[in-house]
Amino acid sequence: MHSQDELVLHLPKEYEILVEHQLQEYKTFLNYLACLKENWENFITTGRIDQARFIRPEVLSSWKRSRERGIDPYKLYPISLAPKNLKQKLAENQELIDIASPFLDAFASNLKDSGFRVDLLDKDLYILKQFGEPGVLETARKQGSYPGVSRCEEATGTNAINLAAILGRPIQLVGPEHYNAQLQYWTCSATPLFDENGDLLGVVNVAGHYLKVHQHTLGMTIALGKAIEFSWCQNRLRKEKELASKYIESIVDSIFDGLIALNGEGRITVFNRTAGQLLDITPHEALNQLADTVLGYQPIIFKALRTGEAYINRELIFNTRNKRKIVIGNVVPITNNNGVNGVLAVFKGLSHARGFIKNLAGFKAYFTFEDLIGSGPRFTQAVNLARQSSALPSNILILGESGTGKEMFAQAIHNASGASDGPFVGINCAAIPAELIESELFGYEGGAFTGAKREGQPGKFELAAGGTLFLDEVNAMSMAMQAKLLRVLQNRSFTRIGGINEIPLKARIIAASNKDLWEEVRQGNFREDLFYRLNVITIEIPPLRERKEDIEELIRHFCQKHSKRLNFNFTISDRALELLKIYHWPGNVRELENVIERCAVLAYSRSSSCIEEQDVMSYPGIKKTFEITKELPDRVEIYGNVGNLETLEKQVIEEVLKQTEGNISRAAEKLGITRKTLYRKIKKFGILLPARR
Predict the structure, then answer these.
(1) What pLDDT shows up at residue 383?
(2) Which of 58, 60, 59 is nearest to 50 (CA)?
(3) What's the pTM value of the predicted model, to 2 decimals?
(4) What angle do CA 180, 183, 184 make, to 5 degrees?
(5) Where in the numbering of this chain does the Sigma-54 factor interaction domain appear (predicted)?
């Protein structure tokens, strides 16, 4: 057997040189530590270092700050969080802990038997979690290093952790470089962690016995920190992507419009909640499915996908669960440099397509009850009844002569009702040929008749869904059309021309007639059963000649209205005003407004801002009325005494009856009033009918 000395003597020469070199490095290191210790002791004693050999400027600056703060260099008074506060601190930094822990745990497992541990600290430099062997962690605890303890400079003086945070870069400290003597047992390699915005997240610290210091430890700590930072940024990007996806999903689902997107293969990639509600299918059932298998064949959508052409405000028909769903919307292709790779359909149900429907052909109500001018008892009674009726869903029948404002009443009722944000769809039954009114009201399917649009067209009943349908001059409907309207009102549903699907009626019906419907029913011109359906609430608007007390108020209103419209201010003289009060107004309020505007233009042509008698008398209707009387009473006398108005009216009626030899029909026609009104005035004034020849 050879002795140990003999073995050493037989080692190769290069090994002897290596051992000698390592011994020399170790002696240099011990000398370096001794110098550091000497410098530290001098600084602690005197507060200065005459020759600061081996002391880095950043370390010396921290020593000075620690001394100025009065930190005891021999005793450690760790600042530690209470259990409750530590729990809160851990919760606040859970994301950092979750991201860093796998890296730090794996790194610590490679430090087995080395005596090193790994610390994770937050941006306030509180220890969040430690990694390492139980014995190493227990040693650290005894020396005041455990979760919840602060390693800030104010609490512990100079250490690698707070210097890394202060300097914003990695740093390694060994033994005597620590300001506190109790921390000089350790060598620490610390690197700061920064988030995607460059703000401090925390610090990673690798600590072990000071004699085991090695520059490689700092390098590994730096690599560890970079890996954590990268993972943090990736996690944030993933979260931002998920959040953005959630935002988009929430926005899509919160839109009141149905929204469907198809990819280039015709598969559904987006299907929001509103689309599901409108089409009676859940998004889960529709997503990633071929559109034609879920929604039925869609000519417009697939045409947009094929050609890249957009379709705006079009009717879309879906067939889901064996039910036909009709909506209105836009179909827009999704394109990129490679052409069309998808299509987006945004649509509303007919009952909610209010913005589109209101703008379609002006389906909007403009007038409110504030626009109904008049304070006479009969007119006020009609307004009050209309106002009270607006809150009810019942059908309303408005009776009144042409020009009395029946549509204004209908619009005011609509705007005061619960359906005010819905469309107001009006149709004049007398203005549409009998053969076309059915398609106007009911709509038609594509190809239902010669000349029909290929895609079909919704009728007024559909367009008025969620709002009001106003049937003006309903008395002009043919008996055949009256029967069809009656069926709609009874069943609350209808079918398009050429269609087979029942469409629910979701509109309130307001009808109007310029003839006495009771009389029309009696004469067989109007269906009695339809009359009762429409006549749930009846509002009678009196003609203007029966509300003389409102004429002046209306005139003042129209003068103000047309002053703004014609862009010049004008007034009316007392004489002209009294003359207008005398006229019997066969055209009612509409005629009165036209006369005021006409007279204003005549006044303007005379460079005058006041309507005078000559302007009023130039109107043929008024001029003819006074010519009938043969002899106009003294005008000054008329204008000065309003009480003479009824006297003049009586004289006019007597004169016309005289000219027509007591023929009531001819006299009423000549006066521009109904037979019923003429009889009432004859009775009122006690006029004796002239004997017929």
Answers:
(1) 94
(2) 60
(3) 0.52
(4) 90
(5) 372-601
